[in-house]
Amino acid sequence: MMFKTHLVVSLLFALILFPFFSLDKGVFLVVFIIGALLPDIDTQTSFIGKKFKIFGWLFLHRGIFHSIWMLILLTGILWAFETNLALAFGLGYFSHLMLDSLNHAGIRPFHPLLKTRIKGYFKTNGIAEKTIFIFSLVLCFVILLK
Hints:
mainly alpha; single chain; globular
């Protein structure tokens, strides 16, 4: 999935989930979105990967950063400091993994232990992804205008 799709879908999820958390709305949204964008740090062409190119050199795209293990590790580290922030981050990260699992390339959620791949039929920047993007964007506006 494209950066813009991850961004808008994570914003939608964050807006829906925010009422269940005792965090400042701005902090919650930022942490959630960081979690949603972080898995693509492993590719030098992504929004976040361009800023941290070393990860693209060291790690395979859709490898460990697109696995449940990194989700657990990073969320666990944050949990030691603040549970609500950790949950916001972890849910954002999970949203990224779920979206990428819809893509025809899919993800290997238990990489490197298992080669099992979860994949869908959506093409990156294809009509299905564009539909998800537009639908999510509209829903974000509806929520924000309430």
